[in-house]
Design a protein that fits this description.
alpha/beta; Rossmann fold; two-stranded antiparallel sheet; 11 helices; 7 strands
């Protein structure tokens, strides 16, 4: 019987109980590395998807994510992290998760079979024409995720689909399909292992490339962050000192006047202007600090 790769059994998994702990861990790590090799093969597809996400971001469109189970958790992680890391506006982010927020603690599997729920969640998400939806499904055939993509197609929403099996419905439905052709899992079907690592890496690459092209990542710094806790304030002070060669005192004062917004504080220092004028200039340059460095 020919099984999809995500359900197949890795031949090296046989006899694991007879191996030492170190040998088992080494094998697990090997398969993780091989899963990441699949991401390298998908770089051209990832590049096209990143360009689509960049265009949507520049157009102030909404960005949605959809998924179920562990693949949905990978999508959720990316959705939640983008505002804090790169300053994506949280009010423009949407998460469509099978079973909703109440399913996050228990991950009941029945919700992923509900295609109609995917349609419903998309229709109530506010996503529409000009927006973009990123769907993650290791199998590429999760009914809930397919439901969100079918509704997206009907609404004129662009789609980026990540799957770990080739020739699957999710990839066929996607405007920007990304095949992450990872090997069979050491524990057959446990796609929170290698498949999830590949998904996470691909999503990280997409968002980081977009942030770089939009000027949200400059000289290796997250300049679009808003410093709202002690750790981020300390990081913001270091960023300002590195980018502007200012003193620690100037960095602290400027950041406070800028309400914790690093780009605003940097431009205040570089141009010797107040926060209001710095915000105006940044808006005129689509939030890109790079021309002033």
């Amino acid at each position: 019987m020919n099984l999809p790769t995500t359900e197949d059994r890795d031949p090296l998994s046989i006899g694991l109980s007879t191996k030492s702990d170190d040998d088992v861990l080494a094998l697990l790590l090997l398969r993780q590395k091989q899963a990441l090799d699949a991401v390298e093969q998908a770089i051209p597809q990832i590049s096209r998807a990143a360009d689509a996400l960049k265009r949507a971001t520049q157009a102030d469109s909404k960005i949605g994510y959809s998924g179920a189970g562990s693949a949905g958790l990978t999508a959720l992680s990316d959705c939640l992290e983008l505002p804090g890391t790169f300053g994506f506006p949280p009010e423009r982010m949407r998460m469509l998760y099978a079973g909703g927020a109440e399913n996050l603690l228990h991950l009941a599997g029945t919700h992923e079979d509900n295609e109609a729920a995917g349609h419903h969640d998309f229709q109530t998400s506010g996503l529409g024409k000009g927006d973009i939806l990123i769907g993650v499904s290791a199998s590429g055939s999760t009914h809930y995720t397919l439901g969100t993509f079918q509704a997206a197609k009907a609404a004129g929403t662009e789609t980026i689909g990540l799957a770990n099996n080739p020739n699957t419905p999710l990839l066929e439905l996607s405007d920007y399909p990304i095949l992450l052709n990872t090997p069979a899992e050491i524990i057959a079907g446990s796609t929170r292992l290698g498949a999830a690592s590949a998904q996470k890496a691909a999503l990280n690459m997409i968002s980081t490339l977009v942030a770089l092209r939009l000027g949200h990542a400059v000289r290796g710094h997250m300049v679009n962050l808003v410093a709202d806790n002690e750790k981020l304030k300390a990081r913001a002070h270091r960023i300002l000192q590195d980018l502007t060669n200012c003193s620690a005192e100037v960095a602290e004062n400027s950041l406070e006047q800028a309400g914790g917004r690093v780009k605003t504080a940097a431009l205040m220092i570089l141009q010797n202007i107040d926060a209001t004028r710095a915000e105006q200039i940044l808006e005129e340059h689509s939030g890109n600090l790079r021309p002033f460095l």
